[in-house]
Amino acid sequence: MGAHDASGFGAGGVCLPGPTAIPRGARVKSLREDSTLRRHRLNDASPVLWRTPIPTDVQQRLVTGSNRAGDVTNSDLELAGSLLQQECVAQCYDVRERTPKDATDNLATMYWSRKGSTTSTGPPARLLRMAAIHQRFHRYLNLKDYLPGKRNTMADDASRLLSLSDAELLTYFNSNYPQSKPWVLWT
Question: Using an 8 Å Cβ cutoff, are 10 and 54 in contact?
Answer without folding.
Answer: yes
